[in-house]
Amino acid sequence: MNHMMIDAYQASESRLDNLMAVDSALNEIVKVLNLKAVMPPFLLPFYYAKDAEDDGISAFVILQGGHITIHTFPRRRCLFVDLLYDGYYDENKLNSVLEKNFSCVIEKSIRTERRYYDSTIDESRIYQSGSDQKDFGPHTIAMVENVDITLEQIFDMLDSLPRTINMLPISRPYVLKSNLENPQYLSGVVLIAQSHIAFHYCIADRTLFCDAFSCSFYRIENFVSYLKEKFGDMVHMTIIRGSKHVDKIFNRENKVKEHGKWLNNSMKRN
Predict the structure, then answer these.
(1) What is the pTM assigned to this prediction?
(2) What's 155's domain CATH number?
(3) What is the C-alpha to C-alpha distance for residues 101 and 33, in angstroms, rounded to an integer?
(4) What domain count does the chain have?
(5) Helix pair angle (220-231, 151-164), 10° resolution
(6) Over 80: is that where the pLDDT of 29 sits?
(7) Is 22 in contact with 72 (CB distance < 8 Å)?
């Protein structure tokens, strides 16, 4: 279960705010990386955030044993991408597709194998309770072994979890089998405000892989407690992603200055 988590900045604002551009990027990722998708891209524009700079597009594709998610923030000129897949893929090809489609700069990428606790991840990226919360948001990953789960149970968990961890759901859960006959995986995704929660259950291994990613700090402990109450022991970690540092935000003030340059030029006298 290879998982790439990518934070990209300095992207084209118009591309990040273009549904067709995001749809095209998702389809190209599937094709170029030779992934097995079990659904077409699902895209949802979200323009109701408390802070207008957090508006953008959330999109996903469910793969056989994983997913691709893209969350764009046009006013911040950044996007967050996840690719979880039960199989090999070339991360350089993934980066190339993103750079070509969004004219972005890949600032941070983390690759991890989800079937065990990856001790190679930079410790500074792992959230500790009470640590500084200036970063853009946490991504909690968990693995629960030796469990039996149905599609209905996955739907019910994804339907109730957003409010449990103090997040705003912007869709109902999308839950399906990897294929109709002899499915290998049961998968589900629910979109929360510019982020997502995803569950993938490997039927043969009786193992559940869980993700909760947020553009703001949700109640991490509540998510972990929810899973422990449901399933008991599990392996989990929370990775800190992104940043809201001033030099990485294309904020309104900067935007006004950039788009107002023509005024200064027009006022100049030869």
Answers:
(1) 0.87
(2) 3.60.90.10
(3) 15
(4) 1
(5) 150
(6) yes
(7) yes
